Amino acid sequence: MAKRLTISLLSLVVGLSACNRGQTSLESKPQVNAESERRAAPCGKVLRLDDAAIRRLDLETRLTQVVNDAEFTDEELKEMDSSRPLLKEQALETYRSAYSSWYKPTDDFQATLDYAVKGTVQSDKYKKLPPDTRTLHDEYLVKFEKMMGKAHSLGKDDGTTAPCPF
Length: 166
Fold this sequence. Notes:
Blueprint: H1 2-20, H2 34-43, H3 51-56, H4 59-69, H5 74-79, H6 84-100, H7 109-121, H8 124-127, H9 131-161
Helix pairs in contact: 1-6, 1-7, 4-6, 6-9, 7-9
């Protein structure tokens, strides 16, 4: 149950993020100054995060630190059928999503993540969990949300400051 909960939450967040990519209303489009317009134009909107970029950005170390900073306990990892390598992989997917959507200033990942966590916590299946298990899951979700938010911020920042490959 716990592993499916984590996978469902991650799938929902990544799915919602991917579905919303590239869609902005005209009213929400911020005014862009000439310098940032020039910087974005030659590179286009697609930044690829290949193996060379992953090494150059030292993502292995940085995302390991993001997972460690979330301070998951061994008990939480065991209960959620999770592991630090799995969490790092999930953080990398969130990083990739943010990195590739660097051009989207109205991307509100944190609101999407909050909505997904709230939906999970308010679900009937979740409410039926024993109180001690629910408390452990609540603590895990808070740390998971913090980790995913940090990974997203790193990806967005790196994508914004990435040098043009052309």
